[in-house]
Amino acid sequence: MEKTITIYTDGACSGNPGKGGWGALLMYGNTRKEISGYDPATTNNRMEMMAAIRALEALKEPCRVELYSDSAYLVNAMNQGWLKRWLKNGWKTASKKPVENIDLWQEIVKLTTLHRVTFHKVKGHSDNQYNNRCDELARLAIKEQS
What we know:
By secondary structure, the chain is of the alpha/beta class. The protein has one domain (4-145): Ribonuclease H-like superfamily/Ribonuclease H (Nucleotidyltransferase, domain 5, 2-Layer Sandwich). Helices cover 40% and strands 32% of the residues. It has helices spanning 44-57, 72-79, 82-88, 102-114, 129-145, and strands at residues 4-14, 18-28, 31-42, 64-69, 116-121. A hairpin with a 3-residue loop joins β1 (4-14) and β2 (18-28). α1 (44-57) runs parallel beside α4. It is globular and about 45 Å long.
C-alpha cells in the first residue's frame, strides 16, 4: 500500500537575489524529519522550489504526498496548469518568454512523476506551526552560513 506523506516547505532569501535558505518538514504517522539547506546566491522563488525538491528527493519510495507551501509561484504553477502549458509551449510563458528556473521545474516534473503529489497553498508567517517551523529552518540555514 502506498504511504501518504505530509510535507511542509518554505524558502527564504536575505536580499532577493541574495543568500538563501530552504527548510522542509516531512511527516509520516508519528515520524518527523526536518531538512534544510543553503545557497549563497539565489532568489526566494528558487529556495521555495528547492525546499519542495529536496523534500521529495528525501522519500525512499514512491509515495502519495500532500505538500504544503506558502509559495503562490510553486502552488499556482502546479494547480493552475502553468507547468503543463510551459511544457506544451517548449518552456515558454504565455508571453513567449523563457520560463524562469527551468532547471528546477524540470526536477519537479521528474519528482511529481515518481510521486503522486497534491500541492496546497498555506498562508505564510501566520498561525501554521509547520509552515512557521520550515521558515525557521530556512532562516537558520542562512544564519549558520553567514
